[in-house]
Amino acid sequence: MTASWDILGSEARLPAADEERPGSYRWQYFDAISDDGRSALVVIFFVGSVFSPYYAERLAAGEQPSPREHVAVNLALYRRHQRPLWVFSEYGRHRLVETSRGQSIGDSHFERSEDGSIALHVDDRRVAFGTRVRANIVFRPLAPPLAARDVHLGGEEHGWRCPMPRARVDARIGDELFSGLGYHDTNFGAQPPAQMLRSWSWGRVHGADSTRVFFDSLTRDGRRSHLVFDTALGRSAAVLPPAPVRPSLSSWLLPMPRRFDCGADASGARLHLRAARTLETSPFYTRFLASFPSRGGEPGDVGMAEHLDFACLDQPLVRAMIRLRMARPERGEFGVIP
Question: Which of 15, 87, 114, 323 could anchor a disulfide with 75, C-beta 3.0 to 4.6 Å?
């Protein structure tokens, strides 16, 4: 029987005054890695899509768009040696419905149950191909919320909560079945992230009996903050010197940290992770499976991680490239690159 925790009460919401504030955003993030390690999935529901070039350009032009005018659904299924299944569709205000238990965008939705589980249903179009994609995914919590109150990232304007740090995930995506361990968090803010943040790295890993989540954020004025949350060890914070970066052709010249800091072990020694398998890469973003060290510093479990350069994302050329990988079904636009 699934234990019941107050998942609903730990969901993040912007203050009522910011729900319509131009530049504000909220996203609900879900991910999972299959038990056999061969597949990974990510689902995100956006209100005020931070990756929308259309939202960003309206803000840059001095308009005052509501975040509800730019909502989006993203589904990515990664399988070894196969092209990812990629859905990233943006909709207008009239395709957003929110209730006390969930959210609907376009024909996709998610809903929380009394027992703490969350059921997601994605019904949308694959980018470039325009073919229908249907997925039913259930997240069942295996641990209580990791951060039931707002955690600020790089400033008071940007926050995070983690209602479900560890979950059992079962899914049917088209004709494929998927089972594994998953994770769910929410991010929100009252202004575009690029106004405050230069970049951030994030990662999560499920150990045998605990889950660790880290944030490594760099603000526009050069302050680097590091936060670690562990279901077994609690929360820790550190201020670190800026990390050296290394652009490379393999990462679209994205300034990537040479190594990723994921906190300290019991002795206080810093732990670092390495990218084990790249899932997604672009001029502003990389998502990868990462090999995390064990408590003793030896090779440990594999988790999900990402590096996002907000300064690159804010460039007009990058916005133009994002258009190629997203769809606006209501306009008959399905993108170019799957």
Answer: 87
